Amino acid sequence: MDTYQKIDKNLKYGVPVGILLFILVIFLFSSMVTIGTGHKGVLFKTFGKGVDTTQIPLSEGFHFVAPWNKVYKVDVRQQQLFESMKVLSSNGLDIQLDATVWYQPRHKDLAKLIKLRGLGYLDDVIKPAIRSAARNVVGRYTPEEIYSTRREAITQEIFEETNNILNQNFVHLKNILVRDVTLPATIKNAIERKLKQQQEALEYEYRLQKEKKEAERKRIEAKGIKDFQDIVSMGISDKLLRWKGIEATLKLAESPNSKIVVVGGKDGLPIIMNAGKN
After folding, report:
1. Can you give the residue ranges of every domain in the chain?
2. pTM of structure
3. Fewest CB within a 10 Å sphere: which of 72, 74, 174, 273?
């Protein structure tokens, strides 16, 4: 009888304790939250004000939170978006624009982003922003400008307009790259023909300028030669030539070879006759 009483007593106290321990284990497991690499946690307080926009996001690692609260895990690393858009040029032609966008949620405003824009901020904020900016910017240019001369300027303008939108929505825009611009085939071919003709005209103009410069160089060179000859001819006279001839004759006469110098030759210059033996 005593044994049965002990069993009844154990069951009476053991079952509630077991249930209590089970609830405690469930409570502990539901209170443990692990934030992975490159993520932060935004705490949602069920019996409070929901997401508190003044709170600091939970960092990477292990955390204890009340089991009735919820943690939104958000990737805060730099992310990449490939976007293809159809936009209209200034004259109403369809333009296919392919762009790559790099973005990142602002860490300090992460709670505001989740509370006001939600976890789907990529589709609800970023994509509409890039499409709106691209339509506005491309609509200011002709197909020729978009295809050739103004690509960098268009990219910069799209970046600035998109950045203005995302700054108001707690997202940091890192960069935008316009990878490709596709025009209607007829327009593209016409632009390419025009660009080719422009290149040929520039090449022809370059050759003309080169020939003109070469002709000018030759003209200056010829004038220089003429001026030199005029100066030289003005400084040379018959008397100077005779005097130089006499100087040369005297030098030859001083050499050891036997010779005969006859003074009063042609044009008054001395004549040298070799008197030596062969």
Report:
1. 2-75, 79-183, 193-235, 238-274
2. 0.60
3. 273
